[in-house]
Design a protein that fits this description.
The chain is α/β, with parallel strands linked by helices and about 250 residues long. It has helices at about 5-10, 20-30, 50-55, 70-80, 120-125, 150-155, 165-175, 185-205, 215-235; strands at about 40, 60-65, 85-90, 105-110, 130-140, 175-185, 235-245. Helix content is about 45%, strand content about 20%. A seven-stranded mixed β-sheet has the order 3-2-1-4-5-7-6, sandwiched between helices. The longest helix has 22 residues, at about 215-235.
Length: about 250
Amino acid sequence: MSLRFHEIAESSHRILNPITIEKLMLLGEMAKLGPGMRVLDLCSGKGEMLLQWSKAFGSGGVGVDHSTVFFAAANERAAELELASRVTFEFGEAQAWQSGEKFDVVCCIGATWIGGGLAGTLEIMRRHLKPGGMLFVGEVFWHEAPPEAALTALGIGADDFTTLIGTLDRIEGAGCDLVEMALANGDSWDRYCAAQWLAVDDYLRANPADPEADELRAWNAAARRSHLEYGRRYLGWGVFVMREVE
């Protein structure tokens, strides 16, 4: 999916992944967030996680994203919640972003493509982490081995993701310990995906002359079918909480 299609499909979302606001807050509790703590979110989307954590726990931080649409939405939301003094957003490529600051918590929720997979993304994240800090990674996993037809329909390579136990193996192989996790369920997956179908349909009805309308319509139809036929059965998603091995 192109970045533009991604922005259209998630235009009505505040949280750009299948997790619920309740589990988002649970993750903040796992991190033991509090006033003065700093969080870095790589590929922060509309910034809802950082902002809700700041509102609930008093933490601050930085979000980095390369979408102008999501970057603007994050800044608007920070102003709306009166949190711009604690949470800031920077426009740019997460994998190339640099800062002299080290953070208590570093997150990359659903964007391990920045490092070519889980291990490479953890390597990027660890550059920004304080000693003893926590790493939060949102990642797809397989409930069971998918057939080739599922991989094709979902547009996923055979080695892009693995099972839950395979995910643990990749985490440990990257020099980290898995210390907690929060997994999405079927309902939150449905809400994340189905809301995209409606957002795209609304956009197409309002913009019938869009030069990419036919392509976007075809993408939406394929996304709907692949989720119902394969995604609900085979795909899982969760946030995995890690510390570096001492």
